[in-house]
Amino acid sequence: MSQLLLSALAVVCPNCDGYNPPRSAACVLCGQALGEAPSARPPALKPAGGTPRPVAPPPGRPVPVSTFPGPKGESGTPPTTPLPPSAIPPGLRPSARTPPPTAAAGLQVERPVPVGMRATAPAGGPAAPPVAARVSGSPAPVPPGPAVTRPPPPVPDSAMPSRSGIPSVGGTPPVAAPGAARPAPPAASRFGLAVISGSTRGQRYKLPVTGCVVGRQRGAILFPDDAYVSPLHATFLVKDGALFVRDESSASGVFVAVAGTEALAPKTLFSAGQRLFRFTGRLEVAPPVAGRPHVYGAPVPLGQAVYGVEEVLVGGRAGRAVVTAAPLLTIGQANCDLSFPGDEGLAGRHCELSPTPTGALLRDLSGGLGTYIRLASGVERPLRPGDRVRLGQHVLQVENLG
Questions:
Q1: Whether 324 contacts 306, CB under 8 Å
Q2: pLDDT in tens, 331-355
Q3: What is the pTM of this model?
């Protein structure tokens, strides 16, 4: 061993295994006399197996690192192994009450090395890399230093609240900024429907803000047991704070109760009690045809309009009818132009018609039983609270829910 190498290598104390300056006569840590020359203690510097044994240097003293031949002649640093507790000076040993940091099996953790134990390269040589320790399932002693803790997992962006009101990625609902006005919930409809006649009498419905559909098979309000209700019968609509009803080309039609009087056009259908009627309109006399004989008949009233009303039976067949030129035509249970004594839904004098130049005027005299006219298909009829609508054998009354 050359004198240059002996002057660069530290002397290891046989008592505490501590580093001492080259050619020291006594250990600076424990005071043990170093009788042997450094050249006579190669086993302390090179343990069995040929791998140099790293030991702790004295506090505050840099350790010269000798270079070892690496692959293809490159210089490097010898592999390091964990230091035994006996190799750490008493002042640098960790406290027994502070357990060394551990990690999960197979996790590789970079551990910082204290300033006093960092290896420095000689002048002109490469800098020594930091010491790394591979932590297995069981904890291993490490050089003293700041505790290594596992950093918390990163928080995804989807879990962060949005301050701008824009939904964040991942579907997390945004958090409104402090002081921001919350959107107002949609206003609920103030209209409702109460069933006052039919198999579901007493049932009440609150209409949505846009209205609803009524039918036997389709819609929000269903009457599955009413054979006179079409699968899609009518629609109730809410527009600009007002309620409307529309007939969806139903077979039996949509009827609305008459409030006082109602103008009728020819061929208009109206209902009273359990009866359905058709206003025929004004009957015009056919002019005679030249060269053909006249047909017998009653004389036509001079200066008076002739009009009529006929009963419509189930299936659309024509029933009883009355034609008159009188200023009034009455319908009721008794003593009327059209009387139906067995119909409990009719008043004694239920309604009357008076002719007009364009049709007739229908007046309700039922005292609350109701006279209904049929709406034309697709026409939207405005409704007010208290109005009644007949769909098949069911009668619905409009309510104001406030």
A1: yes
A2: 999 999 999 998 889 999 999 999 9
A3: 0.53
